[in-house]
Amino acid sequence: MSGKGILSIAFWKGLAAKYGAAALALNAFIEAIFFPIPPDVLLVTLAALYPDKAFFYAAVATLFSTLGGVVGYAVGYVGGRPLAEKLFGREKVLKVHRLYESYEGLIILLAGFTPLPYKVFTVTSGVLFASLRKLIVFSLIGRGTRFFAEAALFYFFGPQVKSFVTQNLNAIFLGLGVITVLSFLAYRRFKKGRLP
After folding, report:
1. Contact in structure between 135 and 70 (CB atoms under 8 Å)
2. Alpha helices, DSSP H, located in 89-161
3. Helix, strand or coil for residue 109?
């Protein structure tokens, strides 16, 4: 088993076809920590093969991606914070932590359902000692939104939506992410403007 094989999308599609939910669980878990192949690849493969089980696969991907996110958080918490403080200084890290803390729920939510690299934000949350509870809650919401949306398309429309999902869904979720951010900023500005 070569490193190139493990890092290829074809390898993981084959693994999904052979081992089903177990392969999806493994991929979703390690992708949330360091791995480059997103769970969507396996989820789409399995949902196209078995549309009637699409929601089950979405639940597996959501659960194990969130669990992987907790491990990513632990990696950042244990090893990343001392390294960041050594490289940038404690005061700068604390300053970034305070800024991140104000938006961490929104950041994790966006990383969960947009094409943003989810693993970067799980580890960063640990480095900055962000709220683990928020990480779990917003990961479940963000990852669940993405994976269950994909599953719903296959469940209701069948394998023929595969090309639509693979070609368009990232752009759709990115657009929703932009709308979410703009709505959040508008709400914050409106709320600030109403304060005496």
Report:
1. yes
2. 90-113, 118-127, 132-157
3. helix
